[in-house]
Amino acid sequence: MITSALPTSRAAYDRSASADESITAWALAARGGDPEAVERFVRALHRDVVRYVAHFSADPQAADDLAQDTFLRALGSLHRFEGRSSARAWLMAIARRAVIDSFRHAAARPRLSDIPDWQLAVELAQPCDLPGFDDGIALLDLLAVLPDERREAFVLTQLMGLPYAEAAEVSGCPIGTVRSRVARARATLIGLLAEADASAALAA
Question: What is the mean pLDDT of residues 138-151?
Answer without folding.
Answer: 78
